[in-house]
Design goal:
single chain; six-stranded mixed β-sheet; binds CU-O-CU linkage; binds copper (II) ion
């Protein structure tokens, strides 16, 4: 993908002149100089307060190379030619120092999804860093303060919908959960390198389809009552669990009776998944890395960017862990093997998928992560706007502009009021903070907002910098549904 010229120009000019591009609007946007700089004193002070611990070194190389998905071999982009990339695993309080070498034919960045990290390590091009050009190395260094299940991916164009993603697990040195083993499970929708398609060709089609002969009525890729209708824009030939198609599934092998912690991550570009383990119920313990009061369920829905941790006590046999591509009538699948038994067909649909499913309303944060009660100091209304017709996804009808920031202040309690005026669902993600969702206050960094729905996401402004809010449907984000919050100086 090639960046539009104006973005490149901006990049060269650097952030020092961004102040010249002062913009005002109904959201009272201010010039860039009025906001805390991503590497400013306030950011350094906040990092020092995290008590940086031992430095852990990691190396990643973003490469264009073939990857075997368990049958189909695709030409794609990945970290070190693996999909998902090797997990990064540290202990809470450790400092992650990740050196990323860019061997891609275009620029890239890495974003560490869900972490309350120092702003200049957040990986947002033109905002928190300059792009890494091909051949360049970029070092990301940040304290991982909260334990939990996180992940990382590029924040450049549509690169996320290739194979550039991997889990980031922050272990709790005082882990309160009792379990025997864990399995990190990353689900994804896949089109790159199959039949000549790339995320860029798909995006171009979505945009031309928008103005095309069908009068703008390109049909969605499927429909789901759980998602309030249109499930997605993109048809994918494959759905992957830990980088494998269902015909050649990834497996967890263990003993019956094992208490297994599943760490589920949705790395998809345009697909929500309904996840269940055949023959088992799950006890969900964490949402987006933060603890909840444990709740039993047969299945759960996971939007792009979301994570859930769940405990299962394994029965004896061979079981399918199925991620149904919601509304798209296809599955990703993995196997749990604790004994002998027939391997389930790659089209299996466990009964659990149609039993009890939990909703956000049933999730309660644990006492330890409940935001203390207090009214908001500031409410930021973000209307989710646009549609398939013009492929003009945006917040408040304004397409993303990296020089335009919505002001907030350190110490405030900020309430994002997310008002979905569109005909589609959107998984909305906030960088650098974990908000309290709606009335229950469950802590999350990404939340599904259904068509016509209003949702509040409340957070304490305790991490100075410039932070993105965006839809985690990568095609919607690229279309313009991204914005920035800036801590005022
Ligand atoms: Cu995983 Cu800005 O996102
Ligand atoms: Cu969206």
């Amino acid at each position: 993908m090639t960046q539009p010229i104006h973005r490149r120009t901006l990049l060269r000019a650097g952030m020092s002149v961004a102040g010249a591009a002062a913009l005002t609007s109904c959201t009272a946007r201010r010039s860039s100089a009025a906001f805390v700089a991503p590497d400013g004193d306030e950011v350094r002070a906040a990092e020092a307060r995290r008590n940086p611990g031992a430095v852990r070194e990691f190396r990643l190389t973003a490469v264009a190379a073939p990857v075997d998905l368990g049958g189909p071999t695709v030409a794609t982009w990945s970290y070190d030619a693996a999909v998902p990339g090797r997990p990064i695993r540290v202990s809470a309080g450790d400092v992650v120092r990740a050196t990323v070498l860019n061997r891609l034919p275009e620029h890239t960045t890495v974003h560490w999804h869900g972490l309350a990290l120092r702003n200049d390590a957040d990986g947002v091009p033109d905002v928190t860093q300059r792009h890494s050009e091909p051949g360049a190395e970029h070092v990301y260094e940040f304290t991982a303060v909260n334990p939990g299940t996180f992940w990382f991916h590029p924040h450049a164009g549509l690169q996320l919908d290739r194979g550039l993603y991997a889990p980031l697990i922050v272990e709790d040195p005082h882990e309160p959960l009792a379990y025997d083993d864990e399995w990190v499970v990353v689900v994804d929708d896949w089109l790159d390198g199959v039949d000549g398609r790339t995320p860029e060709t798909e995006y171009a089609e979505l945009r031309t389809g928008a103005g095309g002969m069908m009068g703008g009525h390109r049909m969605g890729a499927g429909s789901s009552p759980l998602l309030g209708g249109d499930a997605g824009d993109v048809r994918y030939p494959h759905f992957l669990l830990n980088g494998r198609v269902p015909a050649a599934p990834a497996s967890y092998r263990g003993r019956p009776g094992t208490r297994l912690r599943l760490r589920l991550v949705n790395a998809g570009g345009d697909t929500a998944f309904r996840v269940a383990l055949s023959g088992h119920r799950m006890t969900v313990t964490h949402a987006d890395g933060f603890p909840i009061e444990p709740i039993d369920t047969d299945t759960l829905l996971i939007g792009m960017g979301e994570r859930y941790d769940a405990l299962v006590t394994l029965a004896d046999g061979v079981f399918a862990l199925v991620a149904l591509a919601e509304g798209k009538e296809a599955i990703a699948m993995g196997l749990v093997r604790t004994g002998s038994g027939a391997v389930p067909a790659p089209t299996v649909r466990p009964a659990e998928l149609d039993r009890k499913i939990i909703s956000y309303h049933q999730l309660r944060p644990t006492e330890a992560v409940l935001l203390p009660p207090r009214g908001p100091d500031r409410t930021v209304r973000l209307a989710l706007t646009g549609g398939m017709m013009g492929y003009d996804w945006a917040f408040n009808n304004r397409r993303y502009d990296p020089t335009s920031l919505i002001p907030i202040r350190a110490g405030e309690r900020v309430r994002l009021s997310l008002v979905n005026t569109t005909m589609m669902w959107h998984p909305v993600h906030l960088h650098g903070h974990t908000f309290a969702l709606g009335d229950t206050g469950v802590r999350k960094d990404t939340a599904i907002v259904l068509p016509g729905q209003n949702v509040t996401a409340t957070f304490d402004a305790d991490n100075p910098g410039r932070w993105m809010v965006h839809c985690h449907n990568i095609y919607h984000a690229e279309g313009g549904m991204m914005t920035l919050l800036g801590y005022q100086k």
